[in-house]
Amino acid sequence: MGAVEALRLVWDEAFTAYDFGVEHPMAPIRLELTARLADALGLLDAAGVHVVSAEPASDELLLTVHEQAYVEAVRRASTRPTLEDLRFGLGSSDVPTFPGMHEASARICAASRDVALAVWSGQAEHGVNFTGGLHHAMPGAASGFCVYNDVGVAIQALLEAGAKRVAYVDVDVHHGDGVEKIFWDDPRVLTISLHENGRVLFPGTGFPEEIGGAQAQGEAVNVALPPGTSDAGWLRAFHAVVPPLLAAFEPDVLVTQQGCDSHVLDPLAHLALSLDAQRASYEALHDFSHRYAHGRWVAFGGGGYEVVDVVPRAWAHLIAIAAHRPVPPGTDVPASWRDYVAARCGRSAPQRMTDGANIDYRSWATGYDPADAIDRVVLATRKAIFPLHGLDPYFD
């Protein structure tokens, strides 16, 4: 075996074929702009970074998490869509059908499986597929812009390869319901989702009392944050829940979903994070992989619909951190990328790799404040989950 790669990174323009059309918010240009910014920052050809593509996954791989009737429906809808597709969540405004939908979705699954196994086998220390993170897809239906659940496929592949415990942390603004559903009753998989409260945001789930199936009580963890949550509150909740559970669970590998639609500029949700807080969470998850998961980290993209100001900078930071080449927040955005954005999108691009935010937050060790809405959310989750892991919900 050759030298261990610092990062196995998925990118190929073929992944932009996952395209619901010009009016859909999940515009594939966000992937292109991310890759171009990472390249302009010198990340794609950095030492230790191996950029890979993938061929579409076989049905055999898809069927590790999806139902056969659903895979057949996706394949059929990719060439001759009908009203019957709606029975499988296909053809809606959220998940319109498009030619080649099966192949484009299956390619993302194969890529996510491949980088996960590269990390598990020791070929790469970390793996990133920012084209993936399609966490809403259910075993038998499409949902929330997601056709196949590449995250579920990757986690299942890790289990089949020998991982005894996989921890999944989802920081997308929407509840990671599809991944949670797939592993609801599997005690080998801990799923943690921090998201905006389902009473005000799709998919309407992800409450503290949703704790896993009968065989996996406490393995589904949900932090349902109120609208308007900003950096300090979000980071307080994140650090009050994620590291204690990872320490107790002792995963063999850490899998994360880095949807950046929690940003204040995102048009589809109501949290108010800065790029700097998002970057801080990526740094923390990288640290957690080394502290709790033997250095094994597999990270995916996900949501994010401010396609110029937010997504490319957020995921370029993710790539840089995973490559052990973090980009200082004050770094100027390369002029070549800004020129490309102006020509391609007809708008100005950000000047720096930061929003200039102060990301201080109070540790849970400072004590619970019943008057604080964030603290009430955090305590509800900790009370539902922590005792099942032998942890104190009130004190660290």
From TrEMBL:
Question: Domain of life here?
Answer: Bacteria
InterPro entries annotated for this entry?
Answer: AcuC, HDACs, His_deacetylse_dom, His_deacetylse_dom_sf, Ureohydrolase_dom_sf
Pathway recorded for this protein: Ketone degradation; acetoin degradation
The reply to whether DNA repair figures as a keyword in the UniProt entry is no
Keyword annotations: Acetoin catabolism
Which residue range or ranges hold the Histone deacetylase domain? 24-320
Protein family according to the UniProt entry: Belongs to the histone deacetylase family.
Q: Which PANTHER family match?
A: HISTONE DEACETYLASE HDAC1, HISTONE DEACETYLASE HDAC1-RELATED
Q: What is this protein called?
A: Acetoin utilization protein AcuC
Q: From what organism does this protein derive?
A: Kineosporia mesophila
